[in-house]
Amino acid sequence: MALKQGHSNVGVHRSVVSGSWLPLTVLVLFCVISSLVFFFGSGIRLDVNEYSDGLGNENIDWRERMVAQHLKSLLSKEVIHAITAATDDSNPFNVDAFRKSNLSASWRIVGADSLTENNSILKTSRIHGDNKQKLPRGRSTVSSDDHSDLVDNSAKLTRRQLREKRREKRVAELVRHDDEAAIKLENAAIERSKSVDLAVLGKYSIWRRDIENENSDTTVRFMRDQMIMSRVYLTLAKMKSKLDLFQELQTQIKDSQRVLGEATTDADLPHSAQEKMKAMGQVLSKAREQLYDCKLVTGKLRAMLQTADEQVRSLKRQSTFLSQLAAKTIPNGIHCMSMRLTIDYYLLPPEKRMFPKSENLENRDLYHYALFSDNVLAASVVVNSTIMNAKDPSKHVFHLVTDKLNFGAMNMWFLLNPPGEATIHVENVDEFKWLNSSYCPVLRQLESASMKEYYFKADHPTTLSSGSSNLKYRNPKYLSMLNHLRFYLPEVYPKLDKILFLDDDIVVQKDLTGLWAVDLQGMVNGAVETCGESFHRFDKYLNFSNPHISRNFDPNACGWAYGMNMFDLKEWKKKDITGIYHKWQNMNEDRVLWKLGTLPPGLMTFYGLTHPLKKTWHVLGLGYNPSIDRTEIENAAVIHYNGNMKPWLEIAMTKYRSYWSKYIKYDHPYLRSCKLS
């Protein structure tokens, strides 16, 4: 409203100056200008001053002079003093000075923005007035259209000035933000430079923090990488007849090999390793300058990769062969102990070779165990662990069967170390006269020419890697009747009704008498099942491409484990389990139904005749599986070291060995003399 009023006043002012209105309008103009001075006194002050400064008093129109003279009569001294103080030639509109004046609150309510806008309008009016004053007096060039254009131009100018001020403010804010960002970048760059100064040199790039690792074999791996590249350039140097460079590379490779040796960590390297690494780096830089060819280098690296692949496969086969070979062998200490015990046994008089409590061997009210083994130390752990965890050891009877070679040692050990109040008896499998080739298909097959060809002549390995093929099926235990004797339990113990079969690679951790109370529900075999979602099922062990197998068995049937099995010998006899075993064994003479072993024929023989036991009775895998839960092991009644890593071998897993070794008295004279520790 103030702006509009200001525009009207300017129009009236210009009309009066042009002399086109009647003198009567002077009074109206006087009142309007008085109102204008009331609100925009500083603006009129500016115009009057500038008129007088620029043109002199003689050039001011009489009407304007009259208006200026009557201002004093209209305004109080206090208002004029405030307007004069707020007007400055260097800063024509001093808002702060106006606000700080001693006017009452009603005089100070006008905002700075309104005063600025009106001041701009008045200045524009003054400029047009100057131009008009230069025209000849009495001639008017301002029409009503010119007046409208003037008002529009003044509004546009005001808006443009406001936009410019907002733009300047925005630019100032952006500059401030940019300054803050620049300061942050500078600080980050300073910190980065400090970290670079402290970086360890010799890495691929000090700017790549992923290279800066704490691995203990960084230098070893770097030197090996250097040797790989040096071998690449060695081939290229020979190809391009760079003999000097060829000899240099060859020398550096030999030096690096000597420095590396068998080192696996940086701590294993000698002090000269850094110097050798630098020397190799210099030679490699020289070779790169002279020999580098992307195509040739890529081809050589690909060839080296293929060679390394073949070497890895060969080493894996060798490793498999050696691990299986180690699993078959008996450690020197155990063999030594067995020999010493055998010698001492046969030095005993016959009357001292007898075990006490022989009357318990056929007592059906006691708990009977069958253990077939040729390992004295392993058998002792089974017996000791069972007795130490039994509630009433006097009710336990152990039936041990071994071969002729270990019969004396097994007897001597348990004569010297009787199992407390328990009963023990040792037999020789070679003395079972009924177990012959005419009755037992396995013995007949072992004596056949085809089996001898399979074991001793056919595909006889000339190297370690080639000898690993199907090696596990050529294990000597499959040639021993101790392994197949489990299918003849009623013949070995005809007076017993139930017997618990134990392997010699198990450890008993709890009292096992509860197994005799388990109702097998008419089944012959009580065992823990081993199948998971897709493994340890029948199709893993049997050849289902054979019609005899596919017609009689379910490939998804769940497998179970030997090692701890409760056999009902009365049901065994009723169902003629041994006859079923003979049937399938005769059909497998050419090994078309399954490979060698006792578990596949066991699965077939006891198919539909096995009662599953709770898994806590028997935990398997300690001979091959490193990830068995410790709680599961400690809660198990029996733990089984099935697999190649038997606890008495050097290849055993250390984390599981203590469960077995705590039942051995390493301070025993026989163990100390044979250096078993």
From TrEMBL:
Keyword field contains Calcium: no
GO biological process: cell wall organization
Residue ranges of the region described as Disordered: 126-149
Compartmental location: Golgi apparatus membrane
Pathway the protein contributes to: Glycan metabolism; pectin biosynthesis
EC number in record: 2.4.1.-
GO cellular component, one term: Golgi membrane
Source superkingdom: Eukaryota
Transmembrane segments: 21-41
Pfam family, one: Glyco_transf_8
Keyword vocabulary terms for this entry: Cell wall biogenesis/degradation, Glycosyltransferase, Golgi apparatus, Membrane, Transferase, Transmembrane, Transmembrane helix
Membrane topology: Single-pass type II membrane protein
UniProt-listed InterPro entries: GAUT, Glyco_trans_8, Nucleotide-diphossugar_trans
EC supergroup of this enzyme: transferase
MF GO annotations: polygalacturonate 4-alpha-galacturonosyltransferase activity
Family: Belongs to the glycosyltransferase 8 family.
Entry protein name: Hexosyltransferase
Organism listed in the record: Trapa incisa
